[in-house]
Amino acid sequence: MDNKNISKRIFKDRIFTVCVTFLAFIACLPLLGILFLIIKNGASSINLGFFIHLPKPVGEEGGGIANAIVGTFIVVGIAFLIATPISLLTGIFLSENRKSRFSEMVRVSIDILSGIPSIVIGIIAYLWVVKPMKGFSALSGGIALAMIMLPVVIKSAEETLKLIPYSLREASFALGVPYYRTVLKVILPTGFSGIITGVLIAVARIAGETAPLLFTAFGNPFMNFNITKPVNALPLLVFNYATSPYEQWHKIAWGAAFILIIIVFVVNILARMISKKWKVTF
Questions:
Q1: Buried-exposed string 76-94: b where 16+ CB fall within 10 A, e elsewhere
Q2: Which chain regions cross the lipid bilayer (predicted)?
């Protein structure tokens, strides 16, 4: 009788394991399908000229997406420079003042901001930045992406810093170390890996955002390094070329999507490597 019960339990465990494994595989299918289509249609467009040349007019063969690649790094870099210090300081404040009423208000505001659709963020950036500046620009695009990046990095920084034992702070205070030096020399270095991981994940997310850039960066067929002027970006190029009626532009859109996926993939892998290498356990 006992052997039968054990056999039934083993059988049920195996069935459960098979079901869970199958469902996990089903969850991965959309990603695998997307990667297959992008690699199949986009890899053939990749060559050296694709990275260093500007787009050519309709009807001409060749051309590249150098302006979109540079523009992507410009707007993402602006967003990074704006969002990272603000998010880090906010995360420190929330982790150090966990029960204050103002902290709760800030958390609610961050949760609401994280739930706002990116196209609404784009409209807000258009009203707040583009109209006062009287023109589209890389700066307005970076500000829009920074607004999307903020809640992700703030949450990551807060949760990481919450994991740091209070005993480390007490030990620092017992040695007579001022509060600001405790934050800079004890708290931040201890939570470095978690904070950097959150920043990189946020960067990977905003790198593929299209809607905010439609209202801010707008796009530019030429190379531009001036942040007060319109710039192109990979998501914008993919959208504009994929919705065009030209077959040649469709091929370029697939190639740009392939490069964008590679960038996002590399950033995510880098985030995981940093998280594993510098992870601090307590």
A1: bebbbebbbeebbebbbbb
A2: 15-39, 65-94, 106-129, 135-154, 186-207, 252-271
Chain segment 207-249, per-residue pLDDT in tens: 999 999 999 999 999 999 999 999 999 999 999 999 999 888 9
Specify if 282 maps to a domain. no
Do 153 and 206 touch, CB atoms closer than 8 A?
A: no
Query: What is the C-alpha R_g of the chain?
Result: 24
pTM for this model (two decimals): 0.90
Query: 178: domain CATH number?
Result: 1.10.3720.10
pLDDT tens digits for range 94-146: 988 888 899 999 999 999 999 999 999 999 999 999 999 999 999 999 999 99
Residue span of the structural domain in which 192 resides: 50-277
Q: For residue range 259-282, what is the model confidence (pLDDT) as tens digits? A: 999 999 999 999 888 877 776 665
Residue with tokens 């420190």: 92
- Residue with tokens 């017992």, as numbered in its chain: 174
Pair (132, 171) in one structural domain: yes
Q: What is the rounded CA–CA span in Å between residue 108 and residue 102?
A: 10
Rounded distance, CA 87 to CA 52, Å? 35
Residue 129 lies in a domain: yes
Phi (first) and psi of residue 231, to 5 degrees: -135, 160
